[in-house]
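Q: What does the assembly look like in three dimensions?
Context provided by user:
Components: two
Sequences:
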Amino acid sequence: MAIETLPEPSIPVTTPFRPKFGFLTSTPIIAVATVSLTLVVLLAIFAPWIAPHDPVLLTPALRLKPSSAQFLLGTDGYGRDLLSRTIYGGRISLLIGVGSAVFSIGIGLAIGLVSGFFKWVDAVMMRVMDGLMAMPSILLAIAVVSLSGAGIWTVLIAITIPEVPRVARLVRAVVLSAREEPYVEAAISVGSSLPKIMWRHLMPNTIAPLIVQGTYVCASAILTEAILSFLGAGISPETPTWGNIMAEGRAYFQIKPSLIFWPGLLLSITILSINLIGDAARDALDPRMKQREGSK
Amino acid sequence: MFGYLIRRILAAIPVMGVVALFVFLLLRLTPGDPAAILAGDNATPEQLARIRTSLGLNEPLYEQFFTWIGKLLHGDLGVSLISNVPVLKMIGQRVEPSISVAVSTLILSILIAVPLGVIAAWKHGTWIDRFVMGLSVIGFSVPVFVIGYVLIQVFAIDLRWLPVQGFQSISKGFGPFLQRIILPTITLSFIYVALIARMTRASMLDVLGEDYIRTARAKGIAESGVLLRHALRNAAVPVITVIGSGFALLISGVVVTESVFNLPGIGRLTVDAVLARDYPVIQAMILLTSAIYVAVNLLIDLAYTLLDPRIRY
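A: Here is the predicted structure of the complete assembly.
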């Protein structure tokens, strides 16, 4: 009697997440983005050693000087060195970007895991998230800052709040599909505790999409911080941030456009690099998405 | 369909409720005396008392909330703490520049982005595709105000083709009106074009792999007919969706663009209100823009049935 062998049922196997950083140099453009971002980060970290002048030292006698050997990019309306301010400006921007990504992922992950698992929490939480998403992020952020004062923490909170719903929705979607998987059912049936199921079985599924989302949140937070500072509703103007330098440059725009140009360029390069790295990470971590988007 | 419409409108109520509760609590739960926060450091006791009466801060919290909601439902958005003018009237006076820029941005972006996305998908993998995708990542990454200043520098200062800043009402002639909204429109279009082109490309790529496209080609339909009548129409739903969800981006963009180009619109009004801590205006603007966002997305859901006869509610 011939024994017919049935094809093995295809059970999705989730392998533990292991970071692979090969995608950072997958194409020449991504490699350039990685190098650029590394340079910006190094500039920010080592600003006190790299910047040629004190970024907050006022020298009214030297205001709006053009580029020279002493001041490579010239000086601003208060006689401060533009190059030093631009180098220091990256510190706050990157801090806000990374901080906002970490906080929104932390909070969004908690909300998403719980919402995805408990239907009654889901109904309430998702209405709250819908409400938060309906408010334009800039308006929400400037309202928070205007009431609580312009400290770095306030700005960080103001920028993080509108990002939370995006993360929470993503995690919830992943959890909703993962909780139907046999291994979750198995875990429930052997009596694993809820926190254990969430942490051991559901959370690992969210890591890859969250890394990708984190890069987008980081880019968007850096942009929002710059916009807040630019509108005069950000971190106090003495602190050099890219947005602040540009906001002050507005008054002298017709005489000295470089006050907006240099910080704007560095800001754009940073955000562009983070976005490109995010796209590359998505392609590397989620091949299905890559196929759908049709990228090569 | 009618039942669906009613359900959707009812579903919008809790969303707007959350928004209302949020803006209400934002002021009340900020540490410190709300009146003192709004009045600033040098406020006189009279000013503080006036703000407390104006916002009803002396009442218990729940009473404040229901009085406020009651007024909102009657179309009373409060009175500005600075100018004592009803907020709704202030918004009415400033709405023209904002709507002009938003609508022209929407039209220009769709006119540019949809063809770009279609061509990129059609020429998938070629330099045209890479160019369009590159453009779209740049559109996402360069801040609106940086684009604005570059455009001012080139077209208004160097070439002197267009005025640097300002706004002229359409009632004073179409020419001057158009001259002043061209640069703000192009500025704001960058990010929207990026968003729509990216989605059009992705959605077209999905559709171009379908069997009916192969059938259409096999029938000998011209490529333009295949792309526009057979592919684009089927690819439209995600594109329309992203136009709707991008609406929040558009509103935020309007706020920044108005500051760059000195347009006396509602975005400028909001920024001035924030700098002066004129909370009734800030509150009204968040409520109003959220309501617009919810309404636009509701309309888009309804538009699906027109675009895709298979979708029935």
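Follow-up: The first helix of chain A runs from residue 28 to 45.
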